[in-house]
Amino acid sequence: MVGRCEAEGERLTTTAADMLARLAEARSIAAAAGRDDLVERLDHASSALGAGAETAVAVVGEFKQGKSTLVNALLRTDLCPVDADIVTALPTILRFGRPPSAALTGENDDRTPIELGEVQKHITGEAGQEARAVEIRIDRRLLGAGLAIVDTPGVGGLDSAQGNLTLATLTMAGAALFVTDAAQELTAPEVDFLRRTVERCPRTVVVLTKTDLHVEWRRIVEIDQGHLRRAGLDLPVVPVSSFLRMRAQARDDTDLNAESGFPRLVELLRTEIAGSAAEARVTAARAELTFVAAQLRERLDAEEAAAGDPGLHARYAERARRSESLAGGTWQVVLQDGIQDLAADVDHDLRERLRLLIRQGEEILASSDPRETLQDFQAWAAREAARAAADNLMLLVTRAEQLAGEVAERFGMEARDISATLPVLRTNTDKARQITLTFDKSGMRQFLGAFTAARVAYGGFYLLGAVGALFSVAWAAPLGLLAGVTLGRRLVKAEKERQVQQRRAQAGQELRRYVDEVGFHVGRDSREAVRRTQRLLRDEFATRARELSRSAHAAEAVVREVAALAEPQRRHRATSLREQRLRLDRLAS
Amino acid sequence: MNLLAQTRDLLDRAVAATGDPRLVRARRRLDEPLRVAIAGKLKAGKSTLLNALIGEELAATDAGECTRVVTWYADGPAYAVTSYLRDGTAEARPFTRRDGAVRIDLGRPAADVDRLEVRVPSARLRRHTLIDTPGIESLSADVSARTHTFLNRDGRADAVIYLLRHLHGGDVRFLEAFHGGGEGGTSVNAIGVLSRADEIGGCRLDAMTAADRVADRYTADLRLRRLCPVVVPVAGLLGAAGATLREEEFRTLAQVAALPMDHIVELLLTADRFAAGSEQRRHVLTRVGLFGVRLSTRLIHEGVVTDSAGLAAALTEHSGITRLRDLLRTHLEGRAGVLKARSALAALDACLAPGSPLVADAERIRAGAHEFVELRLLHQLRSGRLTLADDRRAEMDRLLGGSGGGVSERLGLTGADDAGAAAREAQARWQRLAEHPLSNRDLRTAARAVARTCEGIVAGQNQQG
């Protein structure tokens, strides 16, 4: 099993290495042709493909299901704290690094190095230091294969503020492991959470832990599979025993490791998750390479065409002229309008959600005395606010991806139109051009996913965690004086009622203040994200437009040049170009 | 005339005046045992705990979700099953017993059945009727709904044992709904159980210690204390097995214990490995769980127990079921009279028009009976509406009967002490507090009530003396 995994990894790296070599070759051709813009594009592509690219795998689930133990067993470490009672309070990110190190990530993504021995104290929140996450770098093959494992806090359960924050971060994860134990079948809240997880992160695996403790785990697997089927969720269920895996490691026992069920999970992580993420990266690089090759070929094609018919010059000149308008083409309008709609919709969505939250909150307050229910009410407010923010972020991300697709489509259409006047060459170039200009859908999604999701830094979520600090009303108002005066019994009752009213009003004000604060932070972040989306899309396509235009001008120049030559010279040049064209074709294949 | 007698009398008059069948039922209920519902999330171990409490394998248990209909287990002259339907009729149903468990043939969709009643000749059930409920948060929404309806709307249980595996948001919401938040709902009729305690911390031999730690934390949790003031860890499987352990089960375990130690360790590594040995072992495993097997083999291997009776006793001791029984006795049965009277008076309120003389009588009983005053105060105290220093709060809780209604329990005495003197001393202290000019109004009222309780104890002691 281990041997096979290694071979898989080997194959994947070879393809990536192969792609890097091709990119390097294309780079030298582009440099020789004097196309520094294309050189830059290729450099970008190779750095994205090379080191540092990792896929985040979030480990989620109800608390006390063995999430941290699973992470420990998976990575053969004991860094994540495990206890019968205390649970993980801070998200823990485990990524590849040599030598091992650890750091705290603060509110502004600043990193404070900590001792490895101190890690557990920080994760359980015992150290009392404010931080957003704990980052651990260790030297493990699985992490080296391009995975980062994120252990999420179980505090408060799935249906809490924390649970909703976890969901929000899932939008940025490449995959999720949903952990549930063999002691019982899936519950209604768990299936609900799973459904929301899959919406955000389609690559999800259900991991059934603690199979060593429960003899009936096979039946639980069957029952869970039935529940998933009925919920319309088609997810693999992998039963594992973290205990056996740890034991196997201690004894260096391969059979025991096989019995633990982990080899299948590791295999899934390596091939399905790390493997397909690596494949997607190679695909994205290939798309760039094809684009560049098509740009480089254009000049060669033009030369060949001109060699056959020197009268083509007018058409090429026309094309070059039209290509200049591409930078300000209608795709810009699509982008502008789209961004405006998106910003308005996302903003409206957030307002609507928060308005509803206030209304519900006031209903709850009206039916209770805040002095007794304040704690529950705070938890409720934090949970609902986090839910609103998480759902709002989800809307933003889906809409941004959709818009990016629309802009790309329009851009492709316009780019094709420019070349419509050109003669059809009887070579295989049409196919290549087709691919470059329509932007293969999955490749697009990949590239867009990278910027919309990963770069949205939601500071607002950090704030939601500290909800307690916002609610700061002194409930124990000094009533002694008033109550000390002997009023009639009815008066006391009325007074009590009045106090309750006052507390309600006070709590209502607090709620509005809190929601206002949440709305401000989340709104600011989402506006920022929208702006970034717009800028990124605009720059991306404007650059491409410039490159296309430059290619068109280069083609025009070469056609003019060729037209000035005598017939035999033209033929000679065409033959010498054949070699170059073959080289490009090979690269783009 | 004590509280229960007063209530009986009032209900007799109400029945005579109206003939309302609901009042007839409420009156009959006063003479029946206290109704205790066992509730919790699905697979929390409700049926297993019920079996452990009765000491008989009655309720069917399974790895998957099992209980789908609210089922009452009450004392009776012989085993019998009655099915009460939604349309108000009742019918006797045939049943079989497999491995002791009662398997009932419903004969119709579960949705038509309101509840099942299983009569069992049992001394334990003479003190309280136990009600098994389907799990909340079940994926079958109608199953969850049945429990919610049963416990929240019908008010047919006097008290509840709530099973938590760990404290989830859903548990808190359920308990809140059970208490209803109004004056009627109190924290005085709920006991929390940290169930499946043997599985906490990976079924290792120190599982029960870890469970104790978790339960202590829950008991100290302010938010939970308001809803159920005490949480005890219980390993239901062990309790049930301890009550019904069979000779051949002991033999199977003894055979394993006789193996060399290395062998045992390998065998007990996982449930799968142990069960793979033979059908008997698989059976024992489902009966006592992995923790139970590990514990039993160790006890037998070390020679601590030598026969099935010894093992049964050891399992019962480790299960924590004895502690739960004690709590049931002191916290619920000791208060059975007032809890039942409360349910009956609530029924009276629901059936009669407000302002009628009978309702006024009910109000008089409520206001006059010191038991009710104590209950209300206890609730206020536990819900944090009365602010007191911690040690004083604990004493007040105890004096009001929070840990049992008996004299020594209230005074916190250990046998030999003089109850009369202790009660007089407590009375004086609380009287001072009640008259202290710096005490606030709420505290003065509370302290007066506590002093009155002490007075009652003193009077009782004097009568005896």
Automatic annotation (TrEMBL), chain B:
<dbReference type="InterPro" id="IPR027417">
    <property type="entry name" value="P-loop_NTPase"/>
</dbReference>
<protein>
    <submittedName>
        <fullName>50S ribosome-binding GTPase</fullName>
    </submittedName>
</protein>
<dbReference type="InterPro" id="IPR051943">
    <property type="entry name" value="TRAFAC_Dynamin-like_GTPase"/>
</dbReference>
<dbReference type="Pfam" id="PF00350">
    <property type="entry name" value="Dynamin_N"/>
</dbReference>
<feature type="domain" description="Dynamin N-terminal">
    <location>
        <begin position="36"/>
        <end position="149"/>
    </location>
</feature>
<dbReference type="InterPro" id="IPR045063">
    <property type="entry name" value="Dynamin_N"/>
</dbReference>
